[in-house]
Amino acid sequence: MDGVEVVVVHDARTGDLLRMPPRAWELMEAADGTRDLDGLLLAASQKGQLYQSSEVVSVLTDLMAAGLLTDGIDPFALEEAESVCDPETALEVLPFLLVCDGSGACCSAYNTIRFSNQEAERARALLPMLSDGYAKRFMPLAGSGAQKSCAAPMVNGGCSYLSESGKCEIHRVFGMAAKPAGCAVYPATFVYDGEVVRVSLGVECACVAKSIASKIGEPLVPAGATLRGDLPKDVQIGVVPNTIVLAEGLTCSREEFLRWSKVVTSTLRRWAPLEGSDLPVWSMAFSHDVVSICWQLSTTVADSNFVGGEKVRAIQPDVPPSHAEVLPWIAALANRMTAKHESAVRWRSEHDNVRATISVLTKAAKSLLDEDVLALVLAGEGANRKVESFYLTAAIHGHQLVGDVPVSLALRDRAIRILLSRAVCLLPRENELPESLATYPLPAVESVMRAQGGKEYLRDLQK
Ligand code: SF4
């Protein structure tokens, strides 16, 4: 950061972050689960660093207090992951063509850029001139023991292979095939649901919003790919679990959830005005309010008779939630964003895109505490209907509402994210916003929620 080495540990469970002095990290690199206190001291001395045992104890105590210390080695770290589905499994791909603007914004929006160990070796071999100081030092992806993947070092919040021109140096010099698999398929998402692999995408990049309804661009999978076996081997494929939590105390089977998902998709299609258009349904703005749809869908899944579809078809898609219903969510969101902003200011560079984005979103979240602003966004002010419609469609198609919170909560969370994006558009003009954020705030909200731990406001809400 600004030419200074900073080591941070991201806690993926809570979205929190621990900043470590590089000297403490040197020590912890040796804590791979095979050494006791004396062993750590010896290993550190072998690297030329002399530590007092009191210093080692102090570092370990801090990590323990942050909930980041565990005992022993991870015996499965280097095992081959079980393949989640047969190579003959069909792909169900969201028809979408992405036009990348080449600005490199997505390469500086995430805390961690994952490389497999082989991909890191290849990148270092292909671009040895970048290895002085930055690319040389890949970090462990998780923990400090043996593992198959690592995290690229970052420079002012961006991947170290991102050049000042906004281009990926690996891609520019050696082509797409030389990039890490995760970067090559970005922003596509893959999930196996017991029948097919659904291919969708995360609406986390302004290029996605700009590409909706585009008739040119790159498809989400290589041309001609119809089966799992046609995808690159290293692509990560999620799995919809056999039991899904819909609401507190209410679960359903995977098969029931798939039936619900299909009913929702066909209902959303009815709301896309197709007549007279040759655009695919995915690229059409619904003729109804997406916040209302998300909020009401949430109520339908929290009902034990949710599968039949009558309840989905009966929802009133233009009746937004009331102030009283959304206010606790907004308050928790504003608190969490304020904490995120304080944390970003403490350690991120002033030239860091994530810091600038979090600053704007924090102002927007606080603005929603104003009754008048909240009334405006609930009435649809600031809405980009096409992006909001696509956002919900992509989430349903990619089973993105199944995750670490119940589906009913995830749907309300999506409604709140949309309200936050609308609030960005209503910020007073003195807030100078980067052009992509001013025009397409929803992808920025989505990226901060998922990749920067913004979604942890849900945890605060449940306390
Ligand atoms: S490897 Fe290239 S594409 Fe991937 S994050 Fe880094 S700069 Fe971006």
Helix and strand topology:
Blueprint: E1 7-10, E2 17-20, H1 22-28, H2 37-46, H3 53-65, E3 91-93, E4 114-116, H4 117-126, E5 139-140, E6 149-151, E7 154-155, E8 158-159, H5 169-174, H6 181-185, E9 188-192, E10 197-201, H7 206-211, E11 238-239, E12 243-247, E13 250-253, H8 254-270, H9 290-301, H10 310-313, H11 323-347, H12 353-367, H13 371-378, H14 385-397, H15 407-425, H16 435-439, H17 441-451, H18 457-462
Parallel strand pairs: 3-10, 9-11
Antiparallel strand pairs: 1-2, 4-6, 5-6, 7-8, 9-10, 12-13
Helix pairs in contact: 9-15, 11-12, 12-15, 13-15, 15-17
The site of iron/sulfur cluster has 11 residues, from helix 5.
What does this structure look like?
The protein has 18 helices and 13 strands. With 463 residues, it is of the alpha+beta class. The chain has 3 domains: 7-65, no CATH class; 110-184, no CATH class; 243-462, no CATH class. It has a 4-stranded mixed beta sheet, covered by helices on one side. It has a 3-stranded antiparallel beta sheet with strand order 4-6-5. A hairpin with a 4-residue loop joins strand 9 (188-192) and strand 10. The protein is globular. Iron/sulfur cluster is lined by residues 107, 113, 159, 161-162, 168, 170-171, 179-180, 183.
What keyword list fits this structure?
alpha+beta; 41% helix; 463 residues; 3-stranded antiparallel sheet; binds iron/sulfur cluster; 3 domains; 4-stranded mixed sheet; 18 helices
In percent terms, what proportion of residues is strand?
5-15%
Mean pLDDT: 88
Profile the largest sheet: 4 strands, mixed
Taking pLDDT < 50 over at least 5 consecutive residues as the criterion, the unreliable ranges are: none
Total count of domains: 3
Helix content class: 40-55%
